Amino acid sequence: MSNGCFNRAPFAQHIRMQDGWIESETSRWPVMAEVPFVMAKDCRYTHTTLGQQDEKCQGCKWRVEVGNV
Predict the structure, then answer these.
(1) Whole-Å CA distances, 10 to 24, 30, 50
(2) What is the DSSP letter of 10?
(3) Residues near 42 by beta carbon (within 8 Å), at least 6 away in sequence
(4) pLDDT level of residue 69 (50, 70, 90 thresholds)
(5) Pairwise CA distance, residues 43 & 6, whole Å
(6) Residues whose CB is less than 8 angstroms from the CB of residue 23 and which lie 6 or more positions away in sequence, other chains included
(7) Does the pLDDT of residue 13 top 60, yes or no?
(8) Which end of the chain has fewer surrounding CB within 10 Å, N or C?
């Protein structure tokens, strides 16, 4: 059995998010904006000692080999 993130699909380059409202007298609509995805795209868990030892991460394409954790 592996972790839920095992070989997950790549993260999107941009994310669609709400940025306020457009209002009229009778209704309102969300204003949507695309923002860049700025979080790390590799596996941050495998940068830790615990992540390096986790057998459920073995063979994952996002795994990072870290020396001297």
Answers:
(1) 39, 27, 23
(2) P
(3) 62, 64
(4) very low
(5) 10
(6) none
(7) yes
(8) N
